[in-house]
Amino acid sequence: MIKNKKDIKKKIDVDRHNLNNQTSKYNQVLTNRHIQMISLGGAIGSGFFLGTGYRLQNMGIGLIIAYLICGFFCFLIMRALGELLLYRPSSGSFVSYSSEFLGNKAAYICGWMYFINWIITGIIDIIAITIYMYYWNIFHFLPQWSIALIVVIIIGTINIVGVKWFAEMEFWFSIIKVIAIILFLIIGSIIFYYHYDMPNSGYNFILKGNYNIFPNGFFSSISLIQGVIFSFASIELIGTTSEECKNPKKILPKAINNIIFRIIIFYVGSILLLLLLMPWNEYKAYESPFITFFNKIGLTYISGIMNFIVLSAAFSSLNSGLYSTGRILRSLAIRNCAPKIMAKMNNNKIPYVGIIITLIFYILGIYLNYKFSYKIFENMINIASLGIVSTWTFIILCQMKLRKAINEGKIKKINFKMPGTPFTSWLTLCFLFFVTISMFFKYPNYIYLIVFIPILVIILCIGWLKIKKNVKDYEKKNKNK
Question: Total domain count for the chain?
């Protein structure tokens, strides 16, 4: 922990020494267009395209409020991360900052919780991909597990070949998502303009008085807010890309500031239009609301196109998660918080061991997909959301420590400041705590959390006891440098 000016200076020198050792092995090839679209892809994930149908069905108009509130706090979290990135870009991102400001025990918890989040999210994405593929009858002859296995092989190859392959794929995945949402907003607006007075439209449904903000009750609706948080999962990915970015101090602030506008236009605009076009209770769980709407009005060929688009969104999320876990595991391995083999890089300067380990867990996900299919979808979202919330909490805590050190004159001032800090920092922590509590509002989903959390705590404690000596050796070694 950082206690005084002398300690913090020594800690900064150590971390910069380690940083130089790490950055010398990464290729700084990501350009402005890559970072802009990667950050956008993180803000528009597969949780939005697939999970929104379930949440519309249960939350109705209240979903707009949920996205506005969550979007606001996601913007604050990104600005907090931006402060840390402008202070010191790091591929280890929040793991590296947790190590510096909160200690290596915090870095260990943060890193492994993030890994768990992406493992579960990856499995969810695999489940989503098989659902999307089965939309077309031509793929019905293939068992779900074989589709999932092909996907894992493709995504694994893209990430191991080189970072530029990942960046290009993510760039085009994001382009597809953006074009799709823009087209929906245009087509949906035209349809609404000419047919808003139809008796079965969402507009008339609301007009007749069916506009209860919490149609299924307050607690039932609030319990689904973690699904909204899951939609924003991977906005923090921009931090992991910082060391492979050509000009991080110029590119990253621009990408972060644009996120709030994208959230308002894409998320809130799309959901508002969906509610105006069709009654909220006609949307279906485990089906994209965009596909539900176009099928409803008979434009099945457009729903087929939309299915391809939401398929690309799931690929994008899976691609991003694999990229991120490889680098986070390497950051943990450097600090002796994970097996040293995970720090290894291939000739393309890719942390391939961490990627391969993640792929092995994805293959386990193929089995779960084959065994349970989409029945485990919402329960897994709850668990994944727990990992997301913990990661964002560590980002805020690190930002608060950084800001304190800046105010005390121990660290040079950073122009890219989180708005309203420290009030907004505390407010964001309260919000994240509320999101965690809300996961226990609905039966039977909270039962899985009650079972999972103690198991997770035991596993993390056992892991820490096993590596505690190695971490202390790492700290002792670096103090002598």
Answer: 1
Distance CA 451, CA 137 (A): 38
Phi, psi for residue 269 in degrees, rounded to 5: -60, -45
Token digits of residue 388: 């997301």
Find the length of the chain.
481
- Between CA 324 and CA 395, with CA 176 as vertex, the angle to 5 degrees is 30
pLDDT in tens, 404-414: 888 888 888 88
Lowest-confidence range among 80-89, 219-228, 315-324? 219-228
pLDDT at 1 > cutoff 60: no
Q: What is the mean pLDDT of the chain?
A: 78
CA–CA gap between residue 253 and residue 256 (Å, rounded): 5
385: which residues sit within 8 A by CB, 6+ positions away? 226, 227, 229, 230, 233, 435, 439
For residue 464, what is the domain's CATH number? 1.20.1740.10
Count of Cβ atoms closer than 10 Å to residue 480 Cβ: 6
Give the C-alpha separation, 53 to 47, whole Å. 10
pTM, to two decimals: 0.82
Cα-trace Rg, the chain:
22
C-beta neighbour count of 437 within 10 angstroms: 11
Q: What are the backbone dihedrals phi and psi of residue 48, each rounded to the nearest 5 degrees, phi first?
A: -70, -45
Helix, strand, or coil (residue 245): strand
Give me the DSSP letters along 271-310: HHHHHHHS-GGG--TTS-HHHHHHHHTT-HHHHHHHHHHH
Residue 471 C-alpha from the chain's centroid: 28
The values of phi and psi at residue 160, to 5°, are: -85, -30
Domain that holds residue 108: 5-21+30-479
Torsion angle of alpha carbons 110, 111, 113, 114, nearest 10°? 110
The string of DSSP letters for 66-89 reads HHHHHHHHHHHHHHHHHHHHHH--
Where b means 16+ CB within 10 Å and e means fewer, 461-478 reads eeebeebeeebeebeeeb
Q: In this structure, what DSSP letter does residue 264 have? A: I
Distance CA 243, CA 64 (A): 35
| SS3 of residue 10 by DSSP | helix
Structure confidence by residue, pLDDT tens digits, 126-164: 877 887 888 888 888 888 788 888 888 988 888 888 777
Read off the pLDDT of residues 5-60 as tens digits, 9 standing for 90 and up: 555 455 544 444 444 444 446 666 677 777 767 766 656 766 677 677 778 877 88
CA-wise closest residue to 481 among 21, 5, 14? 14
Task: From 234, 235, 250, 233, select the one nearest 89 (Cα to Cα).
Answer: 250
DSSP 124-193: HHHHHHHHHHTTSGGGTTS-HHHHHHHHHHHHHHHHHH-HHHHHHHHHHHHHHHHHHHHHHHHHHHHHHH
* pLDDT the model gives residue 14: 47
